[in-house]
Each structure stands twice: as structure tokens, then as C-alpha cells.
Amino acid sequence: MKKILFFLIITTLVSCSGLKSSMIGTFTDTRDGKTYRWVKLKDQIWMAQNLNYETQGALESYGAKRKDIGKLYKDHVIQNIAPAGWHIPTDAEWQILEKAAGMTEEEVNRVPFRGSIEADLLEGGCTQLNIPFTGNLSNRSPGGTLWEFVNFWTSTPYKQTYIQRSFRTDDNRIGRVMPNTSRACFVRCIKNDTTTLDLTVEKIFFREKQQK
Q: In the beta sheet, which residues pair with residue 165?
């Protein structure tokens, strides 16, 4: 039993060698009273749940098996849907997160899929961003394998729409997608500043000095 416990502890430490959260907590969207989890990652504070604000143009995820994954939004409504004190992250702010999690400078500027840090951002990952595969977008490859995607908006314009971030089940890279047409995507917001005075803090991990 002791040997098994020791092995499990070592496995956990190795799997969490990347970017880790330094603080976690909750905040309430004053518009509708909904509460969201947040996580502080180095000098950024991210929502740890998808936005679930009901507004004109908000869509349900038709493939979702869960009810806690938030709404999909078309690009024409995203500029005015962030809670007060928060905003939709730019492409550059996503890149800051990706580099902090281990993506190289060369990789972070590539398109479409790059890096190998997807697992750290997904549910159960070290960052505690807990990005879920929602099943909102799916295709079948020629071989019949089901590929599930989850896409997020950035606020950085591209052609007639905005750059996106894409995660998929068959790849451990993160997509930096520059679409030709509009689609409905999920939203993760980032706080306008790095203060936590107006947030509910649940846990402090004291890891910031250890992060590179």
C-alpha cells in the first residue's frame, strides 16, 4: 500500500509541472446574479467557467450533455456581453497564458494548431481553467471517428469576424483559428486588472514566485 501511494504522489507532481493556479475563488455577475469561478494564473485572472449570460443572440449548445457549460454566442453580440470589470481576452492575452503554460515564442505565433499544452487547460488540468469538451461542434472524419471541438472567442478582429481558440479531443495542441466565416463560440472572460479585492477568494496556493 505504501508503494502504491508513493507512486500516485509522484505521478501527480509530474503531471502538474506546468503553469499552476495561485489563487481561486468566485465572483457574481451583477446583471443576473449568476456566480462564476475564477482562477489567477501569474498576472492574469480568468473565468474558470464559460459565460452563461442570457442575451439576444445567445444559443444553447445542441450537442451538450451537461447544463453547466454556458452559452454559445455569435460574433455580432460578443463585444457587450462581458460582466462589469471583465472583458473578452484578445489574441495577445491568450498568447500570454499559452506561453506561461509552456508554449514557446515560435509556437505561440503559429496557426492553426500549435504547442502541446492542451491538457493543462482542460478539466482536471493544473491551471484549473477546466475547459470542457462540450460537443457543440462535431465532424466525422473519413474513417468515421468522431472529433469534438470547443471554440472560444477572442476580441481580436480578423476579416469580418474574430480570431478564435479551438480545443479538440484528438489533439493535444491548441488551435489559433482565423475563420473565414462567423460561427457560434463560447466565451471565457479575463479580468480588467489583477486585483482580487472585489472577488471572493477561496484558496491561495502561494505558487507565483515558483512560476517562470
A: 152, 176
Starting at the earlier edge strand, list the strands of the sheet with 161-168: 113-114, 174-177, 161-168, 146-158, 137-140
CA distances from 46 to 39, 85, 104 (A): 5, 12, 21
CA-based R_g, the chain, Å: 17
Sign of CA dihedral 98, 104, 110, 112: negative
CA distance 94 to 109: 11
Return the C-alpha cell found at 8: 500516485
Q: Identity (one letter) of the amino acid at 83?
A: P
C-alpha cell at 185: 463560440
Give the CA count within 13 Å in the CB-facing half-sphere of 157. Answer: 4
Least confident of 84-98, 137-151, 190-204: 137-151
The model carries a pTM of 0.84
Phi, psi dihedrals of residue 8, rounded to the nearest 5°: -65, -40
Which amino acid is present at 170? D
